[in-house]
Amino acid sequence: MTGTSEGAGAVTATPAAGVELPDETPLRGLGVSLPSADAAAKTEGTFPYAADLWAEGLLWAAVLRSPHPRARILSVDTKHAAEMPGVRVVVTHEDVPGDAGHGRGTADRPVFAKDEIRHHGEPIAAVAADHPDTARLAAAAIAVEYEVLEPVTDPQLAFEAEPLHPDGNLIRHIPLRFGDADAVGEVMVEGLYRIGRQDPAPIGAEAGLAVPRPDGGVEIYTASTDPHTDRDLAAASFGLTPDQVKVVVTGVPGATADREDPGIQLPLGLLALRTGCPVKLAATREESFLAHAHRHPTLLRYRHHADADGRLVKVEAQILMDAGAYADTSADALAAAVSFACGPYVVPHAVVDGWAVRTNNPPSGHVRGEGAMQVCAAYEGQMDKLAARLGLEPHEIRLRNVMATGDLLPTGQTVTCPAPVAELLLAVKEAPLPELPKDAPEAEWLLPGGPEGAGEPGAVRRGVGYALGMVHMLGAEGTDEVSTATVKVSGSVATVICAAVETGSGFSTLARQIVQETLGVDEVHVAGVDTDQPPAGPACHGRHTWVSGGAVERAAKMVRTQLLQPLAHKFGMSTELLQISDGKITSYDGVLSTTVAEALDGKELWATAQCRPHPTEPLDDSGQGDAFVGLAFCAIRCVADVDIELGTIRVVEMTVAQDVGRILNPAQLRTRIEAGVTQGLGAALMENLRTTRGQVRHPDLTGYALPTALDAPDIRIVKLVEERDVVAPFGAKPASAVPVVTSPAAVASAVRAATGRPIGRLPIRPQAAVAQVIQQ
């Protein structure tokens, strides 16, 4: 696939061994490294982000958020705030004219808290004023009387706790049963795993601008990743029809999750409607950490059964996902976790139970690789335990169990897409290992504690670990995946109109490449996105490469037919006998040769097309069903140095082999993989939004550590398997989610190899990597 990346860090990658990448000299069409159109602006700092928006007569907004994770609201007094000079309006739940609830998956989240606070940072009121400082002061002046309640923060206690929400505490339970539930193996290993709360940590500020319209509607300018869903949520909350609300996507800096919290957009639109003025809100970093969705913290209990040769017999698992205060997309994340609980391995029998529950912790939702990442860390930990129990090498036990095309998932679905898992594993296994640090003074090599680390070289142990990961493509369980695109050609310029948001996935670049290849037009513009266009769906699970890219391709081919038909008719041949290349139209016999511009002859041609993949179905009461359109796979070998006295870890190298279907843009593909590996590295070693009894600790980029250039290892891409998925447009597969899923498990595997410790928690704490007790 294609892609640019946000926050990839300074990583390096070598060309894929054994892969002949396409000739990159002509920068047009599919298979070349066409640069992103906005790359220069983002690099130079001139790209207009949502926080840069401005309008005449602008007011500023601020939101009052709860300091408690759980409390009963006894009263809200806005009188003093409303009377402050410069304040135009103060709104609470009483001022929401439409539906009080919203949410991407389930509409269970209020615009403003009414009777009860359910998480730290929940919105209570919002203010519009003529200056940002005035708005913040007025929000702070709102007097709220609370009855503080005991928060429920342990998801294991949520089953017996009093209901935290009118819908109850249990969001979904999936009991998956596959094969014989009573089957046992000759060897059995157990494990308990905990995955922390990773924040998407968008580098650009979450911001937006709402502008009232003369017809009583409102326009919202924001960096949305799913504008039509946001429009519908806003319209329902404002008591308007969808055609009265317009969402304009602007200034998207990149996204690894839902980019903008509706808790920003909804107060904005409400304030604009109440004041009749444009209103702007730029969230602080603290607000972002408190309000937007995070990766689901997950508790996993596993039991693997195998025969004496190491072949899996049965997998038993219990998966408990902490959804936080509201459901959001937790049901979808749970479905992925349960379905992929056994990993890319052949498992004849499986008993898996998964639960997603509400707590008073920060909200969880869509973050790249949701569900699949958590279970990958667990099942790969189990494979390491089985290897140690049977005296096998970690790669060998994996190789004996890997799935291939034609095998069954534990959901009963047949894997019909290419699944070259064994090929990927062998590629990373056979790649040369990095050199060991030379026997030199410690200043000449990097200790796990960083430059001039406090450890001693003699306490450093090197570990080599492996992991195999998988993700699903597109939506699942009956999601109606559809996208619409229009392609116009006039003169020597083509325009693509599609509501697919460019979040760093490289869709806008791919759209240009598709039109260049199909129509032979070099200059291709991709129009901005707003909800006046037909919907294209959310920017996740590789959707826009497949569904939106497919729609662009179909529309471009329709225009191509319009262009070629008059020529084919004139020369008495079919359009299939004509080809377009380098801006020229030629016939198979060379009789016809003209340029695209000459063939257009001043006409404007256009066509609109849709792409809708084959349907899926929900999982049934036993967790069975054809729930997924397709799958993508990845293998990673991690080499890590661990100071076994201090527990400090340095990842030296990540070796990657990935199932990509088809390489559409080599440079962007490598960047996507590197970014995914680095995001996974953060989840493995440092990223965890910590809470104390539901209270977020240090909600800033000082307290929440992200990987930097000093943390990023060498990333070597040794194999990219181009086995095209026949049901996917272009045959391409998602590129960035599967390395995010796989790399944390690979890091944990390497630390296990270095220390002999079980490593059941991510991120890995220093004390977990200490392999010996130091006596004073």
From TrEMBL:
<feature type="domain" description="Aldehyde oxidase/xanthine dehydrogenase a/b hammerhead">
    <location>
        <begin position="44"/>
        <end position="150"/>
    </location>
</feature>
<feature type="region of interest" description="Disordered">
    <location>
        <begin position="1"/>
        <end position="25"/>
    </location>
</feature>
<dbReference type="InterPro" id="IPR016208">
    <property type="entry name" value="Ald_Oxase/xanthine_DH-like"/>
</dbReference>
<dbReference type="InterPro" id="IPR046867">
    <property type="entry name" value="AldOxase/xan_DH_MoCoBD2"/>
</dbReference>
<feature type="compositionally biased region" description="Low complexity">
    <location>
        <begin position="7"/>
        <end position="19"/>
    </location>
</feature>
<dbReference type="Pfam" id="PF01315">
    <property type="entry name" value="Ald_Xan_dh_C"/>
</dbReference>
<dbReference type="InterPro" id="IPR000674">
    <property type="entry name" value="Ald_Oxase/Xan_DH_a/b"/>
</dbReference>
<dbReference type="InterPro" id="IPR037165">
    <property type="entry name" value="AldOxase/xan_DH_Mopterin-bd_sf"/>
</dbReference>
<protein>
    <submittedName>
        <fullName>Xanthine dehydrogenase family protein molybdopterin-binding subunit</fullName>
    </submittedName>
</protein>
<dbReference type="Pfam" id="PF20256">
    <property type="entry name" value="MoCoBD_2"/>
</dbReference>
<dbReference type="InterPro" id="IPR036856">
    <property type="entry name" value="Ald_Oxase/Xan_DH_a/b_sf"/>
</dbReference>
<dbReference type="InterPro" id="IPR008274">
    <property type="entry name" value="AldOxase/xan_DH_MoCoBD1"/>
</dbReference>
<dbReference type="Pfam" id="PF02738">
    <property type="entry name" value="MoCoBD_1"/>
</dbReference>
